[in-house]
Each structure stands twice: as structure tokens, then as C-alpha cells.
Amino acid sequence: MEPYLPDTYLVARGLHIVSAIVLYGVGLGTAFHMYTACCSADVAGIARVTRQVVLADWLFTTPTAVLQPASGLWLVHLTGYGYAEPWLIVSYLLYGIAGVAWLVVVALQIDMARLAALALRNNSGLPEAFLGRFRLWVRLGWVGFGCLAGVIVLMVAKPALW
Fold first, then answer.
1. What are the helix (H) ranges across the chain?
2. Per the confidence metrics, is the pTM higher than 0.70?
3. Which of 34, 36, 47, 153 is the most buried (most CB within 10 A)?
């Protein structure tokens, strides 16, 4: 294995840290924004916020969701860890679970935005389908954030936990 250049490592680590901050931070921010909007009775506000959250996911979460594992694998390569280290296997699993939860959450958000826009156009309340999707969105959000928190712990602690 060819030794890495310190500058290369710093770039990879910087990308990994910044993408983790953006991924988790934007996720928390949009989740808070959407949760508070959906707990209001303001259909126009809910329609606007759900649309904004879908956009934020495409602009910020999607690129960092791709960059995070790519930079992580780059760091594994640069530091010489084996790809099958126990702490890495656990982080892959947690990230995979979070990713599946997020994909379902995105689909729910798109449908919730559609339902809220329809309710706004029809000057009606939100349908029961919206509320059911919202409840599932909250549950899956806890799963995703919990798994990502676990990945961050493993990212920081590395093999010290094993």
C-alpha cells in the first residue's frame, strides 16, 4: 500500500466531517421545521413547509448522503484500516438502516406535500392519509437519527469501543 499524503488525508477528513455536519444538521433542521408546521392547523403553512423540506432534501441531504460513505471509504483506504473492521461493519449497517428510513421518509414527504397542496387548493383540512404519513414520518425519523448518531459515535471512537 502506498503511503498517503497528509494533505490528501486532511481533505478526506474535512469532507467527511463537513458532510456529516450537513447531513445531520440539515436533517435536524428540516425535521424540526416540518414537525412544527405539521403540528399547526395552518394548511397553507404546512403546504409551503413540506414543499421546502422536499427541496432541502434534494439540495443538501442527497449530495451529503452520497458524499458521507464515499469519504468514509476513502478515509478507510488512506488510514489503512481493513474494510471489515467490526466498528466499520456496524457503521455500514447503521448507515444502511438510516438510508432506507430516509428513502421512505423522502417518499412520505413528497406525498405529504402533494396532499397538503391538494387540501390548500380545495380549501379543506388535511386528509387522514396525511396524518398517517406524518406519524410514520416521525417514527422513521427517530430511527434514522438514532442510527446516524450511532455512526457518528463510531466515527469518533473508532476501534476504541472494541
1. 6-38, 43-56, 62-79, 86-121, 128-157
2. yes
3. 34
